[in-house]
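Nitrite reductase
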Amino acid sequence: MSPGRPRADRCPGALVLHEAADGGLARIRLPGGLVGGGVLAALAALAESFGEHGAVELTSRGNLQLRGVPTSRRAELADQVAELGLLPSATHERVRNIVASPFAGLTGAGVGAGAGSSAGTPPAGGDGVPTAGARLEDLVRGLDEALCADPELAELSGRFLFGLDDGTGDIAALAPDAWAAPAPEGHWWVGPAGVAVDDSGVVGELLAVARAFLRAAGTRDAAGTRGDGSFWRVRDLPDGGAELAAGLRAGRPAAPRPAPRPAAHPVGVWRRPDGGHAAAVHVPLGRLTRPAADLLATVVTATRPGTGQAQASPRGEPPLRITPWRSVVVPCLKDPPSFAARARRTGLVTDPASIWTRVTACAGRPGCASALADVRADAARAVAAGLVAPVALIDGAPADGAPVGGAPADGASVGGVPADGAPADGASVGGVPAGGIRARDMPPAPTGARAHWSGCGRRCGRPPGPHVEIVAGPAGYLVRAAGAEPKES
């Protein structure tokens, strides 16, 4: 629960940019993370034109960002985003925040493999994407269209989040404000009200949450009068949203929340339940270069399941899916044997054991004026050394054989994060050189630990759940255990 927030919502969009230290920052919403390969390649080319280090950035909500946009080219940016079909509503462009399970229908987990349907392998849809994935995509598109068609909902903050979970709990873990997950007997469970509805009622129920939130937040009262809109998300309300949830139930019985069936987020190439192939690539630090985007634009295919033969599809090529974990899913992969090697040559990660899959970072210097360190460069140096946390130093030089992020001895800890994930009192490390952590102060990290590097105390882009946070301060990095709700970056 957070106090009211009297200042204006500064979330950027494609029309109103954030003024960062390295120029304008544009955020382009991709409902459900869905984007055509050609569209992604076009955005990467545009980003590259803004400077030699230009790249498309993947955010923790499955959206895209472009940095360093010159003032003279912002109208051009808006025009190109609109031409690519990514700006269906100028009034609603910052509120189209919809996340959906990116692996739906591709792994045998979630929708089609348990709750809401008979167990077993999900059948394949007409475009080669198993029906479960197509079903979630249809819900995403229906929700986006209905959201943009409601003038009142243009007043939502750019932080309000809708979620569509496939039953694995991956999207529920992102703490959306209004979300749905499959329930038994073909229904969907919708939160925060905690009611069960059928397919046709999901979109309306989610939008009802948003309208009720606007009234509770003071943006509009029951008579339609505008208020100060000082709350951005349901959890910001004084009671954390309890009264809102009770009001949304409106006498309907509370339905039991379906237990999630957690599933892995694969990296690399795998065989789909219907016999086709899918792939996911991790994008180091979320920076997608033009060569990588160009490759991804060429590897998607619409195929007849089980035959490998191309066919026309009413959907066209299945869209790529940008995940909230800085990766890209290719739902229908062309030429699986060659994909991994081609992807690696462009800097994409296809090895699930890569340290890059466990390391994230905010923009840091020079892109952010608040940052106290170039966290991306420091994180890259750590990963090159086989570490997740700052490189250990002895008298200012890298320490041989002093791993910070490798496999630990039993019970070892890093900055207060022991192997069991619970913080050790007084075990954080701070006040050290920005280039690294003193070896005597820095025990190994627990195996599999995730780490997020932040240039300042705001910790933008931090992931949900337990992780090691590495926060730059005036005297160096503070390394400590953390567990927080995510913050988009």
